[in-house]
């Protein structure tokens, strides 16, 4: 049975050997394209957050938890606030960060390779004033002249914004005594009476906001000209803090407050992997889509309210929802199949031309088993032809033995039946050389009768 199987119409082994170099080349090029053209998303990312007890810090923790479910580690990089986050993005110290609207403009963002993943929530400008019963209440920003106000630390978004607002009211820089403390120590200074007020921008979820809104003797400033501010500064919106929103039972606050608010935006470097962009936008949709003090259900996240160009992947999400595959697969599996188009392009470019090489290689490999013996056969003929007169008979006998060895080895050659004609041709040529040597031996022998060559 094994002898029968030895003779087949086709040799899979030879096909595999002939195709191996081509297959290895295709696999190598595809792997190179897979990793260089569209590399796998990194498993860690640096997120610029904010100060201690800030809304940026609180939301940063939520993003870290959301991405950890997909095996991506989020390293939170604290900062003074929006301006420092923007600077860290430019310097490459973070990959993505919370940035307040109005911190930059479209031209600068494009020049610096930054893109928005959407606006997340409004973060009003909160101005908390320490009440002094012996003095008239502060109802206008011009009443802040001569007061000690904490603008926030260098690198936060509030100092720049508050300076712009004071300029609109005609309040000069040196007319207000400025402090630049972080939010937590500034709150301590306010409660101790060593400063008259503090200002910062934040979402209402920040613990300091919640505490100050319920602290006796601390009053929130009412921006009753909020609509005018929103008209003069397009990146601001007019929002209302409703009466009783903090505590309905105690009616805190006891009245409606007008506030002006920029929006918090998730800003990324242009080299952030598109798959991570998808993850962050999906996390934002979960974290920020609910109703809040200043927003309706589903209002955020949004491609609106940002002066920074929105990333193409993020814009696609806001228009069509999450990628199709990620609705039914894990993030990493969906990402793998999504990147397979690179392999398809590479395979299409290689398989067709390289596949034309395999059949000739296969044929050459099979025929080479026969052809290599022709070299041996030609060597036998050459030795016979060049045999010296004195040792001619000895050479003839040696080459006959060599022909027997060649014939025995040739009989062990296994080739597909479709190439058997070459093998039988070789065997007939061996017989032809043998007969010629015998003829020459007959001529060289003195007692030999005259022979006729076959």
From TrEMBL:
InterPro entries: TRAP_TAXI (IPR011852). This is TAXI family TRAP transporter solute-binding subunit. It comes from Duganella alba. The chain crosses the membrane at residues 12-37, 340-364. Pfam families: NMT1_3. Keywords: Membrane, Transmembrane, Transmembrane helix. It comes from the Bacteria.
